[in-house]
Amino acid sequence: MKNKKTKQPKDWRESRRLQAWELKQKGWKQQDIAEALGVTPGAVSQWMARAKEGGVAALHSRPTPGPTPRLSQEQRTQLPVLLAKGAAHFGFRGDVWTRQRIAVVIKDEFGVTYTPTHVGRIVRQLGWSLQKPVERATQRDEAAIEHWRSEEWEQVKKKPPRKDAP
Length: 166
Description:
Number of helices: 7
Distance between the termini: 89 Å
Largest sheet: none
Shape: elongated
Low-confidence stretches: none
Helix content: 40-55%
Radius of gyration: 32 Å
Strand content: under 5%
Structural class: mainly alpha
């Protein structure tokens, strides 16, 4: 029966390291362990050195530390509140949020610079969706456009040649 304190392996790599440790405890040579597990003897040597230094716990997977976030968790929770005020509140024309606009607000409010791509990731993590402004001329005449499409375009567009044409 297994001890309740032993952790279950998180992935196949961790399982392989723990298996190597168990085989070493049974008296196996490092070369034989490497062949049995399909790894290099150097890998087994490194695992055994880690286990001697830090015990079996040193063979368990550890999350890889990434860079510390430039926005604190508190600032991230403030961001939706700021964005809820609307883009016009921050001096933008039109009440549409884009990644570039949000990047400007983050820089102005928190002093942190992000690329628009990373701002998109942050916004999605907050559960927001990005909007893309529709750029249309203010002089646009929808009735004239529809008339052109239905009347003039029909006369101008190319028609496929008839099959029975000479």
